[in-house]
Specification:
The protein is an alpha+beta fold. The chain contains nine helices and 16 strands. Bound molecules: adenosine-5'-diphosphate (ADP) and magnesium ion (MG). The site of magnesium ion (MG) has 3 residues, from loops.
Length: 292
């Protein structure tokens, strides 16, 4: 196969591992810096260029689109789709996963477990949304936050009101969400490839931290997950229309609750915690989908 990874940095662990996994399997693979790809459109059809040269004969791309370049990254993925190149995750799925409200709407529609969540435009509705999630303690989160930044735990109604008003004053959109206390600052990251969870780790927040993100000092270990958790993770990825994703799940008293579906999941934490060759499994999955 002729494979390309859309990534800003060939030195990143995930990018390096995907290149390695593709080469081990005898594929030709290159890393395309997403922001240096240019989009060319004419009646002759869509073309993708890199530094003045047309990119040809691509069989598949693996989009690794960081949150900071979502707009341009998605345009490049759409261009590949228009060119008939197999995209491991499509532009629609990536778009859905980037907006927490949109993702939760799709999860709720599919009947997948999620923390009770509310959203409003008007500051007048603050009382309503606080009530909807069962009152404090509650979580307020920015729609497009990542790595735990933009997720706030409000212990009291007063704190919640102030945080919501302050963020709305900055024109930020936010979700108000039930706080799942019994998760105890831990969550599960399930790496889904196609219709399987190929690796799962438990992430535990640093002392006194309710956020388990590794970027916030959380630690990871191999997790054994239940059939229900497995099914929930796979269903969540399907509901968003993705093929490969990292699903964050809280273990609650009423079962697994999906927090987030990440369409460019990092591989370092999960490969190191589980010892699984996730990059290899991703390349194998693409091999099955792209016949030459
Ligand atoms: N409703 C919640 N109840 C309990 N913990 C939560 C809740 N929402 C988020 N968290 C904790 O905060 C972390 C970050 O939240 P998340 O929604 O995944 O945002 P981000 O995109 O910034 O990672 C989660 O991994 C989890 O540990
Ligand atoms: Mg997260």
């Amino acid at each position: 196969m002729n494979l390309a990874i859309l990534s800003r940095n060939p030195e990143l662990y995930s990018t390096r591992r995907l290149v390695e996994a593709a080469e081990v399997r005898g594929h030709s693979v290159r890393v395309l810096d997403t922001l240096h790809c240019t989009i060319h459109l004419s009646e002759a059809g869509p073309e993708l260029h890199l530094r003045g040269k047309k990119i040809e004969d691509l069989d598949a791309i693996i989009p690794r689109i960081g949150a900071s370049i979502t707009f341009y990254g998605l345009a490049v993925v759409r261009q590949c789709e228009a060119m008939g190149v197999y995209c491991l995750n499509g532009s629609v799925g990536i778009t859905r996963s980037r907006d927490k409200l949109r993702a939760h709407q799709l999860l709720a529609k599919a009947g997948i477990g999620l923390p009770v969540t509310a959203f409003a435009h008007s500051a007048d509705a603050v009382d309503d949304v606080i009530k909807a999630v069962g009152g404090p303690p509650l979580i307020v989160k920015l729609l497009e936050g990542t790595q735990g930044v933009g997720v706030v735990l409000c212990e009291t109604k007063k704190a919640a009101e102030s945080v919501i008003q302050a963020l709305r004053g900055l024109k930020a959109y936010l979700l108000v969400q039930e706080f799942i206390k019994e998760a105890g600052g831990s969550d599960l990251r399930c790496l889904v490839v196609g219709d399987k969870v190929v690796a799962a780790m438990e992430r535990k927040g640093a002392d006194g931290e309710f956020r388990s993100n590794l970027h916030r000092g959380g630690s990871a270990s191999l997790a054994k997950i239940s059939p229900k958790e497995r099914k929930t993770a796979v269903q969540a990825v399907k509901a968003l229309g993705l093929r490969v994703a990292g699903v964050d799940i809280l273990r609650s008293a009423r079962g697994p609750l999906v927090l987030e579906v990440n369409s460019s999941p990092g591989l370092e934490g999960i490969e190191k915690a589980t010892g699984k060759d996730v990059a290899g499994l991703i390349v194998q999955y693409i091999e099955k989908k792209v016949e030459r």
